[in-house]
Description:
This protein is α/β, with parallel strands linked by helices. It has two domains: 5-126 and 279-299, Rossmann fold, CATH 3.40.50; 127-271 and 309-325, Dihydrodipicolinate Reductase, domain 2 (2-Layer Sandwich), CATH 3.30.360. The protein is built from ten helices and 15 strands. It has helices spanning 14-25, 40-50, 58-63, 79-89, 103-116, 131-141, 166-185, 272-275, 277-293, 301-320; strands at 5-10, 30-36, 53-55, 69-72, 92-95, 121-123, 148-156, 189-195, 211-217, 222-228, 236-243, 246-250, 258-260, 263-265, 324-325. It has a seven-stranded mixed sheet. The chain has a six-stranded parallel sheet with strand order 3-2-1-4-5-6, sandwiched between helices. The chain is globular and about 50 Å long. The structure holds (2R,3S,4s,5R,6S)-2,3,4,5,6-pentahydroxycyclohexanone (ISE).
Amino acid sequence: MTNPLRVGVIGVGKMGADHADRVTSSLGGAVLAAVADPDTTTAEQLATAYGVRAFADPLALIADEDVDAVIIASPGFVHEEQLLACIDAGKYALCEKPLTMDAESSRRVVEAERAGGTPLIQVGFMRRFDPEYLEMKRHIDDDDFGRLLLVHNVHRNKAVPTDFLSEMAVRDSLVHEVDTVRWLFGQEITEITVHSPAPSSLAHDGMVDPQIAIFKMAGGGMVTNEVFVNCQVGYEVRCEATLEHGSLTVGLGGGTLIRSQNRWGGSIPDDFRVRFADAYDREVQSWVGATRRGEVVGPTAWDGLASTVVCTAGMESLASGRPVSVSLPEVE
Length: 332
Ligand code: ISE
């Protein structure tokens, strides 16, 4: 492909608007062609700001002949329909997580993609593009410190709205740790347990927050995860890997350390769009390059399916308090 990739963005919430901006202002090889959202007022505003077309119907954007490839940043419950339409139209898609809402619908997407004969879908697990995580992965793969034994993750959001349910801490937040450790270990998760400690008084009524999730990996390694989405402090994501001859930590905060007025410290970002801005840029740039070459790189639809299966088991464990075994489905 010699012409720039004409990208359509579906969903004009925070992530969609960020991606539209990214495609327009900071990437090479791509132009924004259109945006789509049933919220036509916001879609029109964004489209006018960038001088592109607005669609009320995401499926019409996917079918449009002047759109080469699609970024899906709509809510998870419409992903299946939109991904199937992309596969039908033979268009590459970068889809924000979760791939879909449950294991069955994720399986349908993977099967449709396989039946079409060409991999087209990348899932938006942006941590795989974060330089610190990439360095950790390189050390593990190069065997610099021996075998990977354990991973400890911390995932904290400053606060979430009152319609953010306990299950969403698994499906929408923990899903990143699920993908990250599958990638770091190069293995599947075979069991998940989600514990419900006494909740923070600042969690809204009925919300289990924080949560502690434990994963067992296929090779016998284990992973601990704290997910705390009303931590009040800011957005903090840390990951520590324990290996035979050392440990590696990601997310300690690499910003400027300020000493002033008898205090010292740095800053903590408000949300993931700031913490992972660079990773998102790299992710979307890599997707644009791969799409122009006719390839999919990074997390695939199968990775999306695997993470959905683990999170579905995680939500079951959250409800029962018991370990739940994970087995990935056969896919045709
Ligand atoms: C949000 O949807 C994300 O994807 C963020 O990366 C995650 O940290 C946050 O907890 C989710 O709610």
